[in-house]
Amino acid sequence: MRKLINLSVLVIAVVTLGCVSCSDSSNNIVTPSTGNISEGNDPNFKIVANSDAGLTNFNRKVIVFGIDIYAAKKVEDAKLLHAANLMAQYLDNNEDGIIDNKLVVDKMIENKAFLFLWKSQSDMPSSPPSGRLGQDLGNDETVPVWHTNGHTGRYDAAIEEVWHIITHAGYAKAYPTIFGENAGTSLSNAMDIARGGNFTTIPSSYPASAWYSYNDATCTYDCQATEYIYWAMSSILGAQANRLSEISQEWKLNTKAKVETTDTAVYALLINPTYKFPTILPDGTYKR
Fold first, then answer.
1. Over 70: is that where the pLDDT of 237 sits?
2. What would the DSSP string read from start to end of the chain?
3. What is the pLDDT of residues 69-97, one digit of tens each?
4. pLDDT beyond 50 at 6
5. Which of 41, 70, 174, 267 has the most CB atoms around it within 10 Å of its CB?
């Protein structure tokens, strides 16, 4: 699990979003009518040629509710379209064609949020322009079949990375005192309970009572918060139910019931209807 890319340090270009990459007045998905590379077999999304300044390593993209999802040349179309479907299902969880939380998406667009899929390390931008908030996703760690084989086998990392950009560029910006990734917010206060203390750096060992014990030394406090809301939300949605043996060194509450009974603070936040979080785990087949 990688840290979120903060575009003030390592991120992608400042690109003005025109009408071909934004949603219409009803928030329905809009795609450009020209520049198609491959429409694939997806009824909702078109893959279009990318010519955005500073993104020369990415030859195409899909636009979901105004959010750009880029792909490097060797990334499979199916993986790009899978990420697009997951993004749409997270943002329009009841799949009625209307964004569930417009404020969150507005903040993502305001912060020029994007996701980019890469095949090899050489795809990573060497000196990207600043000004956007982004998240990377590896082609080989994107596993669409995970959703159709009973959620067993190699985990689909797209479930995590797509969610990261939504919370980091969306929820954290829309509700900074609640879901902000800095100390003192409702989210980080809950995280401090889950970790057994307020740790600004990774401790040598976590208290025995901790159920969240992420130990990547490069993951700063804000990064820890991003990972925390992912673990909690994905467990509530059922993504971690079969994975306890794989994840217990970082997260012990792998089911909704465990989150509800143990991490009562974060559970209350994530089921609060005010924030319109998803209630159904995306399966990569958006059916608007």
1. yes
2. -PPPEEHHHH--------GGGS--TT------SS-EEE-TT-SS--EEE---TT-TTEEEEEEETTEEEEEETTS-HHHHHHHHHHHHHHHSTT-SSS-S-HHHHHHHHHTT-EEEEESSGGGS-SSPPSS-EEEEEETTT--GGGGTTTS-SS--THHHHHHHHHIIIIIHHHSHHHH-SSTTSHHHHHHHHHHTS--SS--SS--TT-SB----TT--HHHHHHHHHHHHHHHHHTTTTT-HHHHTTTB---SHHHHHHH-HHHHHHHT-GGG----S---S----
3. 999 999 999 999 999 999 999 999 999 99
4. no
5. 70
